[in-house]
Amino acid sequence: MRDVYIAGVGQTQFGELDRDVRQLGADAVQAALDDAADRASVSRDDLDVAFVGNVGGPADRQRGIVGQVCLREAGISGISITNVENACSSSACAVRLAYRELAAGLADVAIVLGVEKMTGVSTEEATGGLAAAADVARESDRGLTFPSVYAMRANAYADRHGDDDLREALAQISVKNHRNALDNPRAHFHREITKDDVLESPVIADPMRLYDMCPNSDGAAAAVLVADDFGTPNNAVAIEAAVHRTGTYDQATTFGDPGKVGDVADVAYDRSGLGPDDVDLFEVHDGSTMGELLNYEALGIAAPGDGPEAILSGRTERDGPAPVNPSGGLKARGHPVGATGVAQIAELTWQLRGEANDRQVPNATVGLAENAGGALNGVGANTTIHILRAR
Amino acid sequence: MRDVYIAGVGQTQFGELDRDVRQLGADAVQAALDDAADRASVSRDDLDVAFVGNVGGPADRQRGIVGQVCLREAGISGISITNVENACSSSACAVRLAYRELAAGLADVAIVLGVEKMTGVSTEEATGGLAAAADVARESDRGLTFPSVYAMRANAYADRHGDDDLREALAQISVKNHRNALDNPRAHFHREITKDDVLESPVIADPMRLYDMCPNSDGAAAAVLVADDFGTPNNAVAIEAAVHRTGTYDQATTFGDPGKVGDVADVAYDRSGLGPDDVDLFEVHDGSTMGELLNYEALGIAAPGDGPEAILSGRTERDGPAPVNPSGGLKARGHPVGATGVAQIAELTWQLRGEANDRQVPNATVGLAENAGGALNGVGANTTIHILRAR
Question: The Thiolase N-terminal domain covers which part of the protein (chains A, B) (predicted)?
């Protein structure tokens, strides 16, 4: 397997934007191409292959050839372009497929795009679109939404470990991510909130409240990857592991069990030869604050049951020993579902290059991204983990 | 690159079915697994990776995790499952990705599924769903549908080559494919038609008539692929080439120019070391009869301008020297869009094993499948070609 580097990244503003997938996608692609031209002298003509993550929500009627439409707008056609739809992890899965093409020697230069338009439709349409990433006939149609999946996980967690400080811990995760996003100019939200704001916000699915949940956002992110035979970019960031697994839904499992994420993390750590203590920052899937808390335990940041302590002690703050979501995460950077996976990779890249400006984690050389996609039987339908390292 | 074999295939009935994507997908997967167990002793536990093609039309609300839902129903979870959405070529692209994983040594055994539910919704909903595989904002919303794309190609063809026998040739393609489907028990249509039936059917987009167009169908098809290190299946069929390209939309081009398909075919022929004369049967994308005729010229079955002669002389009939769509093609086997790519591979596999019963092409050892997906600027957005050979 060849070494694979991130040669360039780009991200649009995330938020409620008056732009469609074509415009969002083309902007992110152009930004990543500009970066890759500077770093590794990559031009459009060098691109061998493209993978594009998009979930096709109700807010943009373009389907089927979303990647072809966006990349054409950025002046790219004629190569193999594959649209990947693995729910909220679509573009992390796209990154992984591009990585594998390059690592295996099937191609030398790849571009990956994640793009989503989510705002501008009714809450019913948006919720219905997202619920289509669960089992529609057996779960969504019977009332299960993603907030309720997270609520059931929270309640199962409380049953197992007690709930003394769980609710406070979840609130603090939201406060932290909103604070981190203040320093991220591309974030959806730039508004500091307090623990009380979270704890007094409306209950969505007990115990999850409005400010525990990530927003629906518009946005796009892109990355250019190169194999070592193409050349080593300046200030290179290498992909040390890229692992994707679908859940094992029918094993005896509870909603609170972070099992699969932990299994995938174990594979990623093993492949990279790195462990949790080697990781300088984490970008994880806080579709809700409970998602981030479960990740603490699945990724080895905290022992089982110690998730609340990890946030309440400040360990996962940006200036703590295990910073999680310095970008603001899904909660505050925003969650244009098909774009989030690449946005995480872009954030890690900026951090590992030392270019994250006011949100920079000092001396960061290793970063981990965890992106989740959909749910079946309450279990994450997709878990995708990347480990990146500055070379 | 390692050799990759088709170890097992399966297909459901195609047609208007009272089944959802979960049931259709699981049935096709189970059939392919049964076949692969017989041929190559493949069991569920051997599967390393899965790729699933689905377009997510309006007739089934399941999105995001279609592959995870279908494969779980067939008892498969825990591996990497990627949903691919490249319009009508989604599952041919899925086959190609699986092939590349195996050829490159990233995995040993893969399963590919193509599945689509299209009936049971209004014509408006179905047409709108399909139109989302063109450029929605710039083309579909201005009135372009796929029948009109084919009509513009037909008119451009007539401008270039004359239309003396074009209309009759197109009618004869429909007659041939309906006749071929009489011997395909899984086909959507089992009804012989005449040239007059075609020529008297309603005009959809001049000169294309109703009986020139493929139907909306429900159905699924699946295939199990193995790398040579896993073992050589009994009566093995090898993938000799798997090529996918997106169109080059902004070159000076006309709607009648089959250029890109020809370019992709040239790459596939080159990689396989085979030429058009070596191919014993073709399964091509007759989304309309004009699609099949253009393929004659793009794939080297006929010289430019000689497409009509190829059908009118009987050359592409099942007992002719270059049989095209012995299965009945999209026109009569049916076109559940996400399933068609794998259905073509299944048909080639049965033919190359000598198991196609009453529709068997005698002594077939090499087969070619061409699957098209979507359109931009009137140019095919995706062209995917596989060449298979009996070993």
Answer: 4-227
